[in-house]
Amino acid sequence: MATEPVVSGLVVALQANFCQVQLDLPGPGGLERLLCVRRSRLGKSGQQVCVGDSVELDGLDWVARRGAIVALKPRSSLLGRPAVANCNRVVVMVALAEPDLDPLQLTRFLLTAEATAQAVELVFSKADLLPGEAVQGWLRRVEAWGYQPLAFSLTTGEGLAEIRQRLCKPGLAVLCGPSGVGKSSLLNALAPALALRVGRVSGKLRR
Q: Which of 142, 144, 99 shows the shortest CA–CA distance to 122?
């Protein structure tokens, strides 16, 4: 009897007791994603399923677009907060204005990112809200810290091509930063299908 090929994929989202799994190879009709449960034996063995996990599936219902996670593949890394598996770089994003850039807050984010032992990248948003010389001043400042920062503006489109190229490098990146810096807006610009909800910066709180 022929053995059925193993179906595998990448966990891209957790929803209550379910996981969204992006298939490594498309299923029937070009299906790319399944909503999956976790087999109870994973929980009994103490294995937690995280975003970024490579998993094996069975119990597939292609019509209903459902399946079950039966095994986790070995991880190359695991971040604790948020729990993300197999991440190979952390992208810290801060705004140059609205909210005002706080050097101490930036330092805390960078130190936390460095503590993951993954590669750390730094990007500045809202570059259109500061004079060009002020933007260059911040870039030179963090270059002296050992980073290769990029500045961009969603309003003018400046720097977006470079941001896309950097974020689309092979591997799994975690994008982090303070509230109000435009993380969701950036992801929507790069991948409109995400349709992430976007907040506004408070006029009083500046966040």
A: 142
Write out the two tokens for 93. Answer: 């994003």
In CATH, which of 3.40.50.300, 3.40.50.1110, 3.90.1150.10, 2.60.40.420 is domain 87-194?
A: 3.40.50.300
Classify strands 66-72 and 54-61 as parallel, antiparallel or unpaired.
antiparallel
With cut-offs at 50, 70 and 90, classify the pLDDT of residue 99.
confident
Among residues 26, 13, 16, the alpha carbon closest in space to that of 196 is found at 13
Q: Where does residue 86 fall: left (phi above 0), alpha (psi -120 to 50 degrees), or beta otherwise?
A: left
Confidence class for position 47, pLDDT limits 50, 70, 90: confident
* 7-78 CATH: 2.40.50.140
Distance of CA 99 to the CA centre of its chain: 22
- Interhelix angle 183-190/160-167, rounded to 10 degrees, is 80
Cα gap 57→194, rounded to integer Å: 25
* Cα–Cα distance measured from residue 178 to residue 109, given in angstroms and rounded to the nearest whole number: 9
pTM: predicted TM-score of the whole model, two decimal places: 0.79
The DSSP H or E segment spanning 2 is none
Tokens in use for 49?
């399923």
On whether the CB atoms of residues 201 and 98 are closer than 8 A, the answer is: yes
Residue 17 has what pLDDT? 85
Indicate the pLDDT class of residue 196, thresholds 50, 70 and 90: low
